[in-house]
Amino acid sequence: MELIAYSDADWCGDKQDRKGISGYLFKFLNAPISWCAKKQPVVALSTYESEYIAGCMVACQTVWLENILKEMEIEVSGPIALFIDNKSAISLAINPVLHGRSKHIEAKFHFLREKVNKGALQIVHCSTELQLADIFTKPLKVERFIKLRSLIGMKEVET
């Protein structure tokens, strides 16, 4: 009963207001159960900050999904693995020593760090090639789109 999450961001994805796009995908028993692509509420000052904000979005969704599964009497083996492809964002979530470079980040985004410190989330680095949430955050070449679509578990249906 494993719940895993993928989180990604496109820094300054909107060329008008320079806000990034966050994307995530949750898989339960290797099937996609929840996904989202959403404009970030603030302008991030760097790629790692944008990825960190996207990770916080996943931390919030994790709480909701755990409660839903608990109501259905489904026990999730924890901690939940969160796959992020940005090492600086991972360091910020794990190591509060980086606080000096992250003082400007709104406090609500440090919810991710809290979940990691409590052991509810385990952040795992994944290569960009295996980042399934990429499909939600940026335009992709056809070959990459088809590969990610297959890895997510979606299939093309002929009509």
Question: Can you walk through the features of this model?
Answer:
- The chain has 159 residues and is of the alpha/beta class.
- The protein has one domain (2-152): Nucleotidyltransferase, domain 5.
- It has five helices and five strands.
- The protein has helices spanning 47-71, 87-94, 111-117, 134-137, 142-152, and strands at residues 2-10, 21-28, 31-39, 77-84, 121-125.
- The protein has a five-stranded mixed sheet with strand order 3-2-1-4-5.
- Strand 2 (21-28) and strand 3 (31-39) form a beta hairpin.
- Helix 1 (47-71) crosses helix 2 (87-94) and helix 1 packs across helix 3.
- It is globular, with a radius of gyration of 16 Å.
- It starts with a strand and ends in a 7-residue tail after the last helix.
- The mean pLDDT is 86.
Whole-Å distance between the termini?
A: 34 Å
CATH homologous group name: Ribonuclease H-like superfamily/Ribonuclease H
Question: What is the residue-averaged pLDDT?
Answer: 86
Low-pLDDT residue spans: none
CATH class: Alpha Beta
What is the strand arrangement across the widest sheet? 3-2-1-4-5
Give the percentage of residues in beta strands. 15-25%
Number of domains: 1
- Topology order in helix (H) and strand (E) letters: EEEHEHHEHH
